[in-house]
Each structure stands twice: as structure tokens, then as C-alpha cells.
Amino acid sequence: MTIGEVARASGVPASAIRYYESIGVIAHPERKSGIRQFAPDAVDEIKALRFYRESGIPVRGLAAIGATPRGTAARGAMWRSVMQARIDDLDAWMREARATKRTLERVIACRCGGRLDRCEAVRAAETAPAARPRS
Fold first, then answer.
1. Three-state DSSP state, 115
2. Each residue of 78-130: pLDDT tens digit?
């Protein structure tokens, strides 16, 4: 299969497939007359990578996996480590989201009548950690 065929079948742009190849996440396919020739199972591999990216697994995590020899226990351990790190990030995000929700509910219920010394939004700002830049 050519890269275009793999891209269409997997739903991943050819540019992303070339990038995954360049950082070692996927194996370099054979070439015939300079054209990449992927095995049919490459489609499923690329679909799995699409799932991981859509799940928020960072490219650096995929690159770390790609740097680990295929078919080894170390590679399986690396996959688990990268996925667990994403789960940990999601857990932290959910804790933060729940806390933010509770604060917003308090602000909605605020009955300060315009008095800033009684305002829930002001209280929330005083107790919130310093703002961090959004990426």
C-alpha cells in the first residue's frame, strides 16, 4: 500500500504518517522506486496511533515508545507508562475541573449585592493559585 492509500484507509494525513516514521514511532516501510510500500497491517497500526493522539497521548510519548525495540517487554512497559501518565493527567484535570465547577457554583449563588468585600468571585480570586499560562 502507498502512503496515500494508508492515509485514506486510516484517516491520518500522509504528513503525519511521514512524521511518525521520521521519529521512529512506525517502522520505515520498504520502498519501490522511491515510493513507500506499507504492509496491509500498517493501516491498523496507524489507526491505533490516531486513537492515542485523539486520547491526548503526546507525540513525545509516542516517540519514546518508538525508541524502544518492537516486540520486547520494555516496549510493552513503555506503552503502559505513557498511557498511565495520560490517565494521571486526566485525573488531575478532572480534580481541577470539579474544583472550578464548585467555585463557579458559589459565584453564581453569590448574593453580595455589589459589595466586593462579600463577593464570592473576589474570595475565589484571593484563594486561587496564581494563573498559569494556557498552551
1. coil
2. 999 999 999 999 999 999 999 989 988 988 888 888 888 888 888 888 877 66
Are 6 and 35 in contact by the 8 Å Cβ rule? The answer is no
**Alpha-carbon gap, residue 97 to 76, rounded angstroms:** 31
Per DSSP, the three-state class of 122 is: helix
CATH topology of domain 3-67: Multidrug-efflux Transporter Regulator; Chain: A; Domain 2 (1.10.1660)
Q: Which grid cell sits at 76? A: 510493552
- In b/e form, how buried is each residue of 84-114, taking b as 16+ CB within 10 angstroms? eebeeeeeeeeeeeeeeeebeeebeeeeeee
Which residues contact residue 26 at a Cβ distance below 8 angstroms, ignoring those fewer than 6 apart?
Answer: 17, 20, 42, 45, 46, 49, 66
> Could you give the C-alpha distances from 70 to 18, 23, 75, in angstroms and in order?
19, 14, 6
